[in-house]
Model the fold of this input.
Amino acid sequence: MVAAWLNTLQHWLLPPACLLCGADGAGSRDLCAGCAADLPRNHTACPRCAAPFSISVTELCGDCHASLPEFDRAFVPFRYQPPLDALIKNLKFGGRLAHARLLGDLFAAALAERGGPLPDCIVPVPLHGLRLRERGFNQALELARTTARQFQIPLRANGLRRVRYTLRQTDLDARRRQTNPLGAFALGDPLPGQRVALMDDVITTASTIAECARVLRTGGATEIEIWAIGRTAADP
Done:
């Protein structure tokens, strides 16, 4: 009751404003209807890794067909294109945590729209301690908080540990992205018999989440679904 009253008061004193264009937000979200309509939906994608397809098909992408990844499937509702990429960049490199709340809310809304069974827990992809001190927060953890709260799914922030500092994936070519995350993660809290959602912000080559999934399997996870807000196009 008190929380609802405080939310109403906050909405009245600080009405939502679009984080992309500054116009009035739609409903309680800091995003206007026009910018929301411009978000690039990932409607046609590989059923295993969510790599975007130009047409609707049911087959796996070439990479997954050649070698199935360690995870079972991926749910990524948007493509990493304008204007979504601006929200993510401003979060990761501009320290704007309001963007994490908006992105988390967008993901949770897409998940509710999809429906279906939910996992037993959410494990965010961890940052190395050096990068965490540099950035001040883990964007994957911040995104996971909203979904965990809205769907009442346990959030296992210590499910994985990052034990090796790696170069940024965006600074590497496609070949080096495949090997960069190897050995970078270790099991934190074992999750035997758990159906796990592994949360990240953006999937590029899927090499980082594949390594995370491999480690989670060693801890007994029986089913692993990848969750992220954005998916890049596959490398040529």
Q: What stands out?
A: Strands lie at 73-75, 78-79, 121-124, 160-162, 185-187, 195-199, 202-203, 223-227, 230-231. Residues 41-231 form a domain with the Rossmann fold fold (CATH 3.40.50.2020). The two ends are 53 Å apart (CA to CA).
